[in-house]
Specification:
This is ABC transporter ATP-binding protein. It is a single chain. The longest helix has 18 residues. The model has no long low-confidence stretch (mean pLDDT about 95). The two termini are about 40 Å apart. The chain has nine helices and 17 strands. It binds adenosine-5'-triphosphate. Adenosine-5'-triphosphate binds next to strand 2 and helix 1.
Length: about 325
């Protein structure tokens, strides 16, 4: 395992600046998740670290070694992509063994067997070890791809939306397993996702990318509680943060504020000004309240046993809100 550093990395494709002077330190043993919408530069960042692609400017270091000119194999990284890539003619066991069978490694067969058994148990594919890779479902193939990375102990795991093709239950199980791999075995991961639950539950650090720029880097909690902008604030939190005109509520507004940002816990219920309930949504683990307040729509969370119904009113007021300027930058 090793610390990975991106130092002022820039990458362009024609007119598109995919990465714009990105500097980031992925500490040894950390779990860094990159967040951002389509096209933000997440996959490009992984490709730079992996060696599948090279920066136009800037440098990558793994364990203090400059990576310039080194192939993916020489970098000792393990990659998992959204789309599984298995050897179709091999069995699941052979696919999982493959990374350990390299003549350079000389891993004893007993150790290979142990690793393969352990990883296949974690990924819930132990009963499929002797099946041909082609005789698996998409979700199973993806688990084998993840397994092929996990049998190794690379300097860093690079994962690009590895759980997106799996069903909800398996995704939840594997979130826990991937987190264990980092927390209990000290592995380092750089991980791309659109799924903020993955970011909140697994990441030690989140990097928020916006059009190739790294706009915030910190713990998920830091980004949730202290976002630098509307853009960063909107990356985490369900329901999404409410962004409303700054002067919508009674009370002081800082100079230059254009918008007020309210997460559910920043909306006090029961005191303040009246809003109208437009919908009560029972989601099991969360009950969402859709409100209309002075022509604006808001979504917040309420008590699971609420008796509130559509058409009723509830008083609300902001509690320690965020304020943003006209460019969306946080000012208070
Ligand atoms: N090989 C390429 N050729 C041309 N443009 C590219 C290439 N790779 C990436 N880009 C462009 O660079 C930008 C960043 O792409 P990237 O794939 O890193 O985004 P992303 O954040 O991973 O998005 P997604 O969530 O859709 O995977 C996009 O505008 C994309 O179109």
């Amino acid at each position: 395992m090793a610390k990975v550093i991106l130092d002022q990395v820039t990458k362009t494709f024609g007119d598109v600046v995919a990465l714009d002077n990105v500097s980031m330190t992925i500490d040894d043993g950390s779990f860094v998740i990159l967040l951002g919408p389509t096209g933000a530069g997440k996959t490009t960042t992984l490709r730079m670290v992996s060696g599948l692609d090279t920066p136009d400017a800037g440098e990558i270091f793994i364990g203090d070694q400059p990576m310039i000119g080194l192939t993916p194999a020489q970098r000792d990284v393990a990659m998992v992509f959204q789309q599984y890539s298995l050897y179709p003619h091999m069995t699941v066991r052979q696919n999982l063994e493959f990374p350990l069978k390299s003549p350079i490694l000389k891993t004893p067969q007993s150790m290979i067997d142990e690793k393969v058994e352990a990883v296949s148990r974690v990924l819930q594919i132990a009963h499929k070890l002797d099946n041909k890779a082609t005789a698996l479902s998409g979700g199973e193939m993806q688990r084998v791809s993840i397994g092929r990375a996990l049998v190794r102990s690379p300097s860093i795991y690079l994962m690009d939306e590895p759980l997106s093709s799996l069903d909800a239950k398996l995704r939840a199980d594997l979130r826990i397993e991937l987190k264990n791999i980092q927390a209990n075995f000290g592995q380092t991961l750089l991980y791309v996702t659109h799924d903020q639950i993955e970011a909140m539950t697994m990441a030690t650090h989140v990097g928020v990318l916006d059009h190739g720029k790294l706009v915030q880097f910190g713990s998920p909690r830091e980004i949730y509680e202290n976002p630098v902008s509307i853009y960063a604030a909107s990356r985490l939190g369900q329901p999404r943060i409410n962004i409303l005109p700054a002067d919508l509520f009674k009370g002081p507004v800082p100079d230059g504020a254009k918008s007020i940002g309210l997460r559910p816990e920043q909306i006090s219920q029961g005191t303040g000004e009246e809003s109208f309930v437009t919908r009560v949504e029972h989601l099991g683990d969360q009950t969402r309240l859709h409100l209309k307040f002075k022509e604006q729509d808001l979504i917040t969370v309420t008590n699971a046993h609420t008796s509130l119904q559509r058409g009723e009113t509830v008083k609300i007021r902001p509690h320690k809100p965020f304020f943003f300027d006209a460019d969306g930058a946080r000012i208070a």
